[in-house]
TrEMBL record:
This is Probable tRNA sulfurtransferase. It comes from Methanobacterium subterraneum. Residues 55-163 form the THUMP domain. The lineage of its organism: Archaea, Methanobacteriati, Methanobacteriota, Methanomada group, Methanobacteria. One of its GO terms (cellular component) is cytosol. Belongs to the ThiI family. The gene is thiI.
């Protein structure tokens, strides 16, 4: 294919104030440059990439947050003869590759930026006549089988036929850092990704609850590696804490039904301490309202009461099917469903309507603050 560059489009960045927009644009370009070698230019609301390896760059852009869509394209000078020659070459290759043929209807989508001695409609008609001259295809402006885009910007004209959908969102690194509670389940990796999509750098925190689970890091490491693919432009740290001893105290000294509530309350409080150390602005988890016992409204209140830092749950209004669909698109679903041991600390009848005074009393009984100090000493930076 004659493509030699990629045109990148962004969305909500464009509606920010000039100062904020400029900062976000610079960050997006910086993130792109971390994975794509070549020249990157910003012109009039578009990012133009001239990569050293175009196929590799096209794949890399699929996982860069902040990009709405992008198109491999070819460029020529803005005059009728040059545009005609490029279209003839471009369409000729598409026909040769079986992407477009005389059996397909087509439409020309033309837009202009700048002053020219022709209108967009006039140029579209001209380009259409060039395509017809090659393929004898019929024009269908409403439901065409094939679209050719002609984008005229000043003295340069760009030709392309694909608009590849990007992840959208805001560039990673524009919204500060958050700490995300991560497990080997389906939900929390999706929550971490959604915060990346809103421009946050993410630090992951995993609680190893051995001997109540296997204690294996295999699934966590695979999930970490998958999430790392999307954290373009920001370092993705993974911490792990030994949590089995604290969980034992919850079981031995707390009300049996309240084990999960005490466990989650402790996770938030410990995450807050690490967040302060890591200069994170919020805690993130994969809670979905009512999905499990610890995620009823009374229990959410009881588990978060002791934490002053904001706790964000991007999945809170989603059902399991919606979350699984996102996990499949993300690529973490197949990892999360790998065989693993369930937590044996979960009581037979877990509390679903925790009373806050009783939770606070139980935390005092198990001397939670002292136990938290032990957990903090166990922190390991895995990656």
């Amino acid at each position: 294919m004659v493509n030699e560059l990629i045109i990148v489009r962004y969305g909500e960045i464009g509606v920010k104030s000039p100062k904020v927009r400029g900062r976000f644009e610079r960050k997006l370009i910086e993130n792109i440059k971390t994975v794509i070698k070549g020249t990157v230019e910003l012109k009039e609301g578009r990012i133009f990439i001239y990569p050293q390896n175009l196929p590799k760059a096209v794949e890399s852009l699929k996982k860069i947050v902040g990009i709405v869509s992008y198109s491999p394209a070819s460029v020529t000078r803005t005059n009728h003869e040059s545009i005609k020659e490029l279209i003839q070459s471009y369409i000729g290759e598409l026909v040769e590759d079986g992407i477009f043929s005389g059996e397909d209807s087509f439409a020309i989508r033309c837009r202009r930026v700048g002053n020219h001695d022709f209108s967009s409609q006039e140029m579209a008609a001209y380009c259409g006549s060039v395509v017809y001259g090659i393929t004898k295809s019929k024009v269908d402006l409403t439901h065409p089988d094939f679209e050719l885009f002609v984008e005229i910007r000043g003295d340069k004209t760009y030709i392309y036929h694909q608009k590849i959908r990007g992840l959208g969102g805001l560039p990673i690194g524009t919204q500060g850092r958050v700490i995300c509670l991560i497990s080997s389940g389906i939900d929390s990796p999706v929550a971490a990704f959604l915060m990346m999509k809103r421009g946050c750098s993410v630090t992951l925190l995993n609680f190893n609850t051995h001997p109540y689970t296997s204690g294996s890091n295999d699934k966590i490491m695979k999930i970490y590696q998958k999430l790392k693919e999307y954290s373009v432009g920001a370092k993705l740290n993974l911490y792990q804490a030994d949590y089995g001893e604290f969980l034992s105290k919850c079981i031995d000294k707390g009300p049996e039904r309240m084990t999960c509530v005490l466990c989650k309350n402790g996770m938030y409080q410990i995450a807050e301490k690490l967040a302060i150390r890591e200069k994170c602005l919020a805690i993130v988890d994969g809670s979905s309202l009512g999905q499990v016992a610890s995620q009823t409204l009374p229990n959410i209140r009881a588990t978060r009461y002791s934490t002053s830092m904001p706790i964000i749950s991007p999945l809170i209004g989603m059902d399991k099917v919606e979350i699984e669909d996102l996990a499949k698109k993300l690529g973490t679903y197949e990892i999360s469903i790998l065989p693993d041991s369930d937590c044996s600390a979960v009581p037979r009848y877990p509390e679903t309507n925790a009373e806050l005074p009783l939770v606070l009393e139980a935390l005092e009984t198990i001397d939670a603050e002292e136990e938290f100090k032990k957990v903090l000493k166990s922190f390991q930076l895995i990656r």
